[in-house]
Amino acid sequence: MDTSELDYDLPDEAIAQRPVEPRDAARLLVDRGPGRAPEHRRVADLAELVGPGDVIVVNDSRVRRARLLLARPTGGQVEVLLLEPRDGGWEALIRPSRRVRPGEALVAAHGAVTLTPRRPLGGGHWIVGVAGDPEQAGTVPLPPYIHEPLADPERYQTVFARRAVSAAAPTAGLHLTVALLERCQARGAAVASVELAVGADTFRPVTEARVEDHPIHSESFDVPDATIAACRDARRVIAIGTTVVRALESVAATGTRSGRTSLFITRGFEFRTVDVLLTNFHVPRSTLLALIDAFVGPRWRDLYGVALASGYRFLSFGDAMLVERAR
User: In CATH, what number does 67-137 get?
Assistant: First the structure.
Protein backbone atom coordinates (compact mmCIF):
# COMPACT_ATOMS: atom_id res chain seq x y z
CA MET A 1 0.00 0.00 0.00
CA ASP A 2 1.37 3.39 -0.97
CA THR A 3 1.66 5.65 2.08
CA SER A 4 0.22 8.55 0.08
CA GLU A 5 -3.13 6.72 0.24
CA LEU A 6 -3.21 7.59 3.96
CA ASP A 7 -2.72 11.29 3.33
CA TYR A 8 -5.40 13.96 3.62
CA ASP A 9 -5.45 17.71 4.23
CA LEU A 10 -5.86 18.42 7.96
CA PRO A 11 -6.15 22.17 8.65
CA ASP A 12 -4.61 23.37 11.92
CA GLU A 13 -7.94 24.82 12.99
CA ALA A 14 -9.51 21.35 12.88
CA ILE A 15 -7.12 20.01 15.55
CA ALA A 16 -8.84 20.20 18.94
CA GLN A 17 -6.71 21.90 21.59
CA ARG A 18 -8.95 21.14 24.54
CA PRO A 19 -11.54 18.47 25.33
CA VAL A 20 -15.25 19.23 25.38
CA GLU A 21 -17.27 19.11 28.58
CA PRO A 22 -18.92 16.93 29.56
CA ARG A 23 -16.89 14.09 28.06
CA ASP A 24 -19.77 12.46 26.21
CA ALA A 25 -20.83 15.75 24.59
CA ALA A 26 -18.29 15.06 21.83
CA ARG A 27 -19.83 14.67 18.39
CA LEU A 28 -20.15 11.17 16.95
CA LEU A 29 -20.25 10.49 13.21
CA VAL A 30 -22.12 7.21 12.80
CA ASP A 31 -21.29 5.31 9.63
CA ARG A 32 -24.34 3.71 8.00
CA GLY A 33 -22.43 1.75 5.38
CA PRO A 34 -21.74 2.15 1.66
CA GLY A 35 -24.21 4.29 -0.24
CA ARG A 36 -25.79 5.73 2.91
CA ALA A 37 -25.14 9.11 4.45
CA PRO A 38 -23.55 9.00 7.90
CA GLU A 39 -25.59 10.16 10.87
CA HIS A 40 -24.55 13.03 13.12
CA ARG A 41 -24.93 12.12 16.80
CA ARG A 42 -23.22 12.65 20.16
CA VAL A 43 -21.15 10.11 22.07
CA ALA A 44 -23.86 10.35 24.74
CA ASP A 45 -26.16 8.62 22.22
CA LEU A 46 -24.04 5.44 22.24
CA ALA A 47 -26.52 3.73 24.57
CA GLU A 48 -29.18 4.10 21.87
CA LEU A 49 -26.93 2.31 19.39
CA VAL A 50 -26.19 -0.83 21.44
CA GLY A 51 -28.29 -3.66 22.76
CA PRO A 52 -28.40 -7.21 24.16
CA GLY A 53 -25.48 -9.35 23.08
CA ASP A 54 -23.16 -6.42 22.42
CA VAL A 55 -19.86 -6.32 24.31
CA ILE A 56 -18.18 -2.93 24.68
CA VAL A 57 -14.45 -3.32 25.28
CA VAL A 58 -12.32 -0.52 26.75
CA ASN A 59 -8.59 -0.11 27.37
CA ASP A 60 -8.20 0.58 31.09
CA SER A 61 -4.51 1.58 31.02
CA ARG A 62 -3.59 4.81 32.77
CA VAL A 63 -1.12 7.40 31.45
CA ARG A 64 2.06 7.73 33.50
CA ARG A 65 3.47 11.09 34.58
CA ALA A 66 6.28 10.29 32.19
CA ARG A 67 7.44 13.73 31.00
CA LEU A 68 10.40 15.10 32.94
CA LEU A 69 12.33 18.37 32.62
CA LEU A 70 15.90 17.68 33.80
CA ALA A 71 19.16 19.58 34.08
CA ARG A 72 22.47 18.34 32.71
CA PRO A 73 25.70 18.82 34.71
CA THR A 74 26.57 21.68 32.34
CA GLY A 75 23.36 23.48 33.28
CA GLY A 76 21.51 22.82 30.02
CA GLN A 77 17.98 21.43 30.12
CA VAL A 78 16.64 18.30 28.48
CA GLU A 79 13.15 16.91 28.21
CA VAL A 80 12.82 13.19 28.89
CA LEU A 81 9.86 10.97 28.10
CA LEU A 82 9.97 7.64 29.94
CA LEU A 83 8.53 5.04 27.58
CA GLU A 84 8.68 1.69 29.37
CA PRO A 85 10.85 -0.45 31.67
CA ARG A 86 13.64 -2.20 29.76
CA ASP A 87 16.98 -3.91 30.41
CA GLY A 88 16.95 -3.18 34.13
CA GLY A 89 16.17 0.50 33.55
CA TRP A 90 13.87 2.45 31.26
CA GLU A 91 13.72 3.19 27.58
CA ALA A 92 13.48 6.96 27.31
CA LEU A 93 13.27 9.59 24.60
CA ILE A 94 15.66 12.47 25.37
CA ARG A 95 15.43 15.83 23.61
CA PRO A 96 17.82 17.32 22.73
CA SER A 97 20.06 14.27 23.01
CA ARG A 98 22.99 15.12 20.74
CA ARG A 99 25.27 16.20 23.59
CA VAL A 100 24.04 13.80 26.26
CA ARG A 101 26.76 11.42 27.41
CA PRO A 102 26.51 7.98 29.06
CA GLY A 103 26.96 8.18 32.82
CA GLU A 104 26.13 11.85 33.30
CA ALA A 105 23.45 12.73 35.84
CA LEU A 106 20.24 14.35 34.63
CA VAL A 107 18.56 15.86 37.69
CA ALA A 108 15.04 17.14 38.28
CA ALA A 109 14.40 20.32 40.25
CA HIS A 110 14.92 19.80 43.99
CA GLY A 111 16.65 16.48 43.21
CA ALA A 112 13.43 14.47 43.30
CA VAL A 113 14.56 12.26 40.39
CA THR A 114 17.93 11.54 38.80
CA LEU A 115 18.29 9.81 35.43
CA THR A 116 21.54 8.31 34.21
CA PRO A 117 21.83 7.65 30.47
CA ARG A 118 23.39 4.23 29.96
CA ARG A 119 23.20 3.33 26.28
CA PRO A 120 22.00 5.18 23.17
CA LEU A 121 19.53 3.32 20.95
CA GLY A 122 19.38 5.87 18.13
CA GLY A 123 16.85 8.51 17.22
CA GLY A 124 17.06 10.14 20.65
CA HIS A 125 16.13 6.92 22.44
CA TRP A 126 18.28 5.78 25.38
CA ILE A 127 18.35 3.15 28.06
CA VAL A 128 18.49 5.11 31.32
CA GLY A 129 18.73 4.32 35.00
CA VAL A 130 16.18 6.01 37.25
CA ALA A 131 16.65 6.97 40.89
CA GLY A 132 13.62 8.41 42.67
CA ASP A 133 9.93 8.44 41.77
CA PRO A 134 9.19 9.93 38.33
CA GLU A 135 5.49 10.14 39.24
CA GLN A 136 6.40 12.78 41.83
CA ALA A 137 8.47 14.93 39.48
CA GLY A 138 6.89 14.27 36.09
CA THR A 139 3.84 15.45 34.22
CA VAL A 140 1.43 13.68 31.89
CA PRO A 141 2.83 13.93 28.33
CA LEU A 142 0.35 15.46 25.91
CA PRO A 143 0.64 14.81 22.16
CA PRO A 144 2.98 17.22 20.32
CA TYR A 145 0.11 18.83 18.41
CA ILE A 146 -1.55 19.98 21.67
CA HIS A 147 -0.22 23.46 22.40
CA GLU A 148 -2.36 24.41 25.42
CA PRO A 149 -1.81 23.03 28.94
CA LEU A 150 -4.66 21.15 30.58
CA ALA A 151 -6.37 22.83 33.51
CA ASP A 152 -7.08 19.36 34.90
CA PRO A 153 -4.53 16.63 34.02
CA GLU A 154 -7.14 13.98 34.82
CA ARG A 155 -8.91 15.04 31.63
CA TYR A 156 -6.19 13.10 29.75
CA GLN A 157 -7.18 9.96 31.67
CA THR A 158 -10.21 7.77 31.05
CA VAL A 159 -12.74 7.40 33.88
CA PHE A 160 -11.90 3.68 34.04
CA ALA A 161 -8.10 4.09 33.99
CA ARG A 162 -6.39 1.61 36.31
CA ARG A 163 -2.64 0.87 36.15
CA ALA A 164 -0.23 3.63 35.08
CA VAL A 165 1.52 1.86 32.19
CA SER A 166 0.95 4.07 29.13
CA ALA A 167 2.90 6.97 27.64
CA ALA A 168 -0.24 8.22 25.87
CA ALA A 169 -3.96 7.96 26.45
CA PRO A 170 -6.29 5.54 24.66
CA THR A 171 -8.07 8.62 23.40
CA ALA A 172 -11.37 7.14 22.21
CA GLY A 173 -12.02 6.15 25.81
CA LEU A 174 -11.73 9.77 26.93
CA HIS A 175 -15.28 10.33 25.64
CA LEU A 176 -16.94 7.79 27.93
CA THR A 177 -18.47 8.44 31.34
CA VAL A 178 -19.53 6.08 34.09
CA ALA A 179 -23.15 7.11 33.55
CA LEU A 180 -22.95 6.41 29.81
CA LEU A 181 -21.51 2.94 30.37
CA GLU A 182 -24.27 2.26 32.89
CA ARG A 183 -26.88 3.29 30.32
CA CYS A 184 -25.29 0.93 27.80
CA GLN A 185 -25.50 -1.89 30.34
CA ALA A 186 -29.14 -1.03 31.05
CA ARG A 187 -29.77 -1.54 27.33
CA GLY A 188 -28.37 -5.08 27.61
CA ALA A 189 -24.77 -4.50 26.50
CA ALA A 190 -21.87 -5.82 28.55
CA VAL A 191 -18.67 -3.90 29.32
CA ALA A 192 -15.27 -5.61 29.35
CA SER A 193 -11.68 -4.40 29.46
CA VAL A 194 -8.19 -5.01 28.14
CA GLU A 195 -4.90 -3.41 29.06
CA LEU A 196 -2.60 -2.22 26.31
CA ALA A 197 0.31 0.07 27.20
CA VAL A 198 0.08 2.85 24.63
CA GLY A 199 3.54 3.94 23.47
CA ALA A 200 4.77 7.27 22.16
CA ASP A 201 5.31 5.68 18.74
CA THR A 202 1.55 5.94 18.37
CA PHE A 203 2.19 9.48 17.11
CA ARG A 204 5.12 8.59 14.85
CA PRO A 205 4.18 9.13 11.18
CA VAL A 206 4.79 6.55 8.48
CA THR A 207 7.73 7.92 6.50
CA GLU A 208 8.38 4.96 4.20
CA ALA A 209 6.92 4.99 0.70
CA ARG A 210 5.11 1.69 1.40
CA VAL A 211 3.07 1.37 4.56
CA GLU A 212 4.17 -2.23 5.08
CA ASP A 213 7.82 -1.13 5.28
CA HIS A 214 7.15 0.93 8.41
CA PRO A 215 8.81 -0.58 11.53
CA ILE A 216 5.81 -0.94 13.82
CA HIS A 217 6.37 -0.44 17.55
CA SER A 218 5.58 -3.21 20.00
CA GLU A 219 3.42 -2.74 23.09
CA SER A 220 2.66 -4.86 26.12
CA PHE A 221 -0.89 -6.10 26.51
CA ASP A 222 -3.10 -8.22 28.72
CA VAL A 223 -6.56 -9.51 27.86
CA PRO A 224 -8.38 -11.18 30.76
CA ASP A 225 -9.94 -14.59 30.21
CA ALA A 226 -13.34 -13.09 31.06
CA THR A 227 -12.98 -10.59 28.22
CA ILE A 228 -11.99 -13.31 25.77
CA ALA A 229 -15.03 -15.37 26.79
CA ALA A 230 -17.36 -12.38 26.53
CA CYS A 231 -16.10 -11.55 23.02
CA ARG A 232 -16.42 -15.18 21.92
CA ASP A 233 -20.11 -15.24 22.93
CA ALA A 234 -20.96 -11.69 21.76
CA ARG A 235 -23.43 -10.71 19.09
CA ARG A 236 -21.15 -7.77 18.31
CA VAL A 237 -17.79 -6.76 19.76
CA ILE A 238 -17.56 -2.97 19.98
CA ALA A 239 -13.98 -1.76 20.47
CA ILE A 240 -13.45 1.63 22.08
CA GLY A 241 -10.35 2.73 20.21
CA THR A 242 -7.64 1.29 18.01
CA THR A 243 -5.64 0.06 21.02
CA VAL A 244 -8.49 -2.28 21.93
CA VAL A 245 -8.59 -3.56 18.35
CA ARG A 246 -4.88 -4.26 18.47
CA ALA A 247 -5.12 -6.15 21.77
CA LEU A 248 -8.13 -8.27 20.81
CA GLU A 249 -6.90 -9.08 17.33
CA SER A 250 -3.46 -9.96 18.74
CA VAL A 251 -5.12 -12.61 20.93
CA ALA A 252 -7.07 -13.92 17.95
CA ALA A 253 -3.97 -14.04 15.77
CA THR A 254 -1.60 -15.65 18.27
CA GLY A 255 -3.75 -17.46 20.83
CA THR A 256 -1.75 -15.66 23.53
CA ARG A 257 -3.68 -13.48 25.98
CA SER A 258 -0.76 -11.38 27.24
CA GLY A 259 2.78 -10.35 26.39
CA ARG A 260 3.99 -7.98 23.70
CA THR A 261 2.38 -7.36 20.36
CA SER A 262 3.90 -5.95 17.18
CA LEU A 263 0.73 -6.61 15.19
CA PHE A 264 0.56 -4.17 12.28
CA ILE A 265 -2.99 -3.95 10.93
CA THR A 266 -2.99 -2.82 7.32
CA ARG A 267 -5.16 -3.27 4.25
CA GLY A 268 -6.12 -6.89 3.70
CA PHE A 269 -5.94 -7.85 7.39
CA GLU A 270 -8.47 -10.51 8.42
CA PHE A 271 -10.33 -9.29 11.51
CA ARG A 272 -11.48 -12.14 13.72
CA THR A 273 -12.95 -10.43 16.77
CA VAL A 274 -13.94 -6.76 16.42
CA ASP A 275 -17.17 -5.88 14.60
CA VAL A 276 -17.65 -2.20 15.46
CA LEU A 277 -15.14 0.52 16.32
CA LEU A 278 -15.59 3.82 18.13
CA THR A 279 -12.51 5.88 17.32
CA ASN A 280 -11.22 9.43 17.04
CA PHE A 281 -10.11 11.06 13.78
CA HIS A 282 -6.42 10.31 13.27
CA VAL A 283 -3.25 11.96 12.01
CA PRO A 284 -2.53 11.66 8.25
CA ARG A 285 0.03 9.00 7.26
CA SER A 286 -0.22 7.23 10.63
CA THR A 287 -0.40 3.57 11.58
CA LEU A 288 -3.74 4.33 13.25
CA LEU A 289 -5.17 5.55 9.97
CA ALA A 290 -3.81 2.40 8.29
CA LEU A 291 -5.87 0.39 10.77
CA ILE A 292 -8.98 2.43 9.94
CA ASP A 293 -8.37 1.83 6.23
CA ALA A 294 -8.15 -1.90 6.90
CA PHE A 295 -11.30 -1.89 9.05
CA VAL A 296 -13.62 0.33 6.99
CA GLY A 297 -12.04 0.25 3.55
CA PRO A 298 -11.59 3.31 1.32
CA ARG A 299 -14.88 4.73 2.65
CA TRP A 300 -12.89 6.28 5.51
CA ARG A 301 -11.89 9.08 3.15
CA ASP A 302 -15.55 10.00 2.52
CA LEU A 303 -16.26 9.92 6.26
CA TYR A 304 -13.30 12.16 7.03
CA GLY A 305 -14.42 14.52 4.28
CA VAL A 306 -17.89 14.77 5.80
CA ALA A 307 -16.39 15.31 9.26
CA LEU A 308 -14.10 18.13 8.09
CA ALA A 309 -16.86 19.80 6.12
CA SER A 310 -19.18 19.55 9.13
CA GLY A 311 -16.76 21.09 11.61
CA TYR A 312 -15.82 17.99 13.57
CA ARG A 313 -12.79 18.35 15.85
CA PHE A 314 -9.83 16.05 15.07
CA LEU A 315 -7.14 14.08 16.95
CA SER A 316 -6.78 13.29 20.66
CA PHE A 317 -9.18 15.86 22.13
CA GLY A 318 -11.47 15.84 19.12
CA ASP A 319 -14.72 14.13 18.20
CA ALA A 320 -15.28 10.50 17.25
CA MET A 321 -16.88 8.21 14.72
CA LEU A 322 -18.61 4.84 15.04
CA VAL A 323 -17.89 2.48 12.15
CA GLU A 324 -18.77 -1.10 11.28
CA ARG A 325 -16.22 -3.47 9.85
CA ALA A 326 -16.35 -3.76 6.08
CA ARG A 327 -17.62 -7.18 5.03
Answer: 2.40.10.240
